[in-house]
Amino acid sequence: xxxxxxxxxxxxxxxxxxxxxxxxxxxxxxxxxxxxxxxxxxxxxxxxxxxxxxxxxxxxxxxxxxxxxxxxxxxxxxxxxxxxxxxxxxxxxxxxxxxxxxxxxxxxxxxxxxxxxxxxxxxxxxxxxxxxxxxxxxxxxxxxxxxxxxxxxxxxxxxxxxxxxxxxxxxxxxxxxxxxxxxxxxxxxxxxxxxxxxxxxxxxxxxxxxxxxxxxxxxxxxxxxxxxxxxxxxxxxxxxxxxxxxxxxxxxxxxxxxxxxxxxxxxxxxxxxxxxxxxxxxxxxxxxxxxxxxx
Length: 295
Description:
Blueprint: H1 3-16, H2 20-23, H3 39-46, H4 50-57, H5 66-75, H6 80-93, H7 110-118, E1 124-128, E2 132-136, H8 138-143, E3 155-156, H9 157-163, H10 167-170, H11 174-191, H12 196-208, H13 210-216, E4 226-233, E5 237-247, E6 254-260, H14 266-291
Helix pairs in contact: 1-6, 3-4, 3-5, 5-6, 9-11, 12-13
């Protein structure tokens, strides 16, 4: 993923969605040869020269200041996630070489595991920006039982979503889930453009999924901090769950994600049924382990 191309395509896609009317600009005549704003209109709104903005949109972000990026963000009406993505791309463009820094931790610290395990009544897991699930409590494994059938480790939500046909049944809001996952991966690519594992994942999905390619080309980015997801679980049926993503400051790049159901709803009752099934499975696994012959 070349940073100059990423900047060019991102800014072009954002400019195309902002009309002069939306930007508060007068429109003269009826014929416009571009969708959205012209480059010179973005430059006018940002208070910079047309040549400077044209250079930036062509991918040349060398030496661009944060003030200019702030002004361009306002002109293009970028939201918080989009603004952060533009800053990430510009930061990468101003690096002379790939940074020598450690990647996200591959293992979850014992104290974080204990916290996740303590959330015994709700699904909770630890994931990185590539959407690898690095550690999950029994309830999360039960909720994502279809995903955990994949023998490849770590389990990856993007790989499951686009390459496993069972995903279309599990996620009731398929289109919304697809948009969220691709937008999360696009944001991660901006933050970590030199992550080889992320590049490999994007290459795999681009090669094998037309749907992924279409969404990836839109350059949408979105924070995945909280919201609601609807599932059609193969054991307990329909579930509507709220989720919260909590960053781990001591482990940059890792997040704890937890799901809960509104008390007194059918989803709360079905989540209780899932918990009972998970407990039975754990007891059965423990009995099988005790009965297994010693090597």
